[in-house]
Amino acid sequence: MLRGIFSGKKGGLFDRLRDGLSKTRQNILGKVSSLIQGRARIDEELMEEIEEVLIQADVGVETTLKLMDRVRETVKERRIEEPSLLIGILKEEMLRIFGEDEPLDVSGAKPYSIMILGVNGVGKTTTIGKLAARFKDQGLKVLVAAGDTFRAAASDQLEIWCQRAGVELIKGAEGGDPA
Q1: 5-46: pLDDT as tens digits
Q2: For residues 57 and 27, what is the distance between their CA atoms, to the nearest angstrom?
Q3: Domains, in order of start, for the chain
Q4: Distance set, CA 106 to CA 55, 126, 139, 164 (Å)
Q5: CA 75 – CA 119 distance, rounded (Å)
Q6: Global pTM?
Q7: Residue 170 backbone dihedrals phi, psi, to 5 degrees
């Protein structure tokens, strides 16, 4: 899913997500580039500073540690000493981690719940509608619960998607508490 964000390729459904994260990506890579400038070699201090940049960019501690372990491993395996090569390695390892898509298996315990979260304008409602239709086509019973009651017409937009998919929708009053 996130492969296109770091590779620069247009991906269709995730174009808006990629565009939304573009500034974050540039910010991370820009800060790492600044850290690398003027460095003669790759050392542990530099690696720790890169970790700090990733954590401050909300990549997450667990993901940052996994990513940096892979970067360190790659640097060691390839015997890389030139700091300027770290940007390419960092991108490569991000693709490897974020590119690890797994199919969504809903065959487990029932009911199976999926929560969709994201910033404005990345296609959450459209994705919900498409997932609902897909699961309905697979013979599953689908119930969608609207949680975005504060955005004007959010529930109405979701209702249209649910009608198209032929699935049930639970929604509260516009502007009300979604709980």
Answers
A1: 344 444 444 455 555 556 666 778 888 999 999 899 999 999
A2: 8
A3: 3-98 (1.20.120.140), 105-179 (3.40.50.300)
A4: 32, 20, 12, 22
A5: 35
A6: 0.51
A7: -110, 125
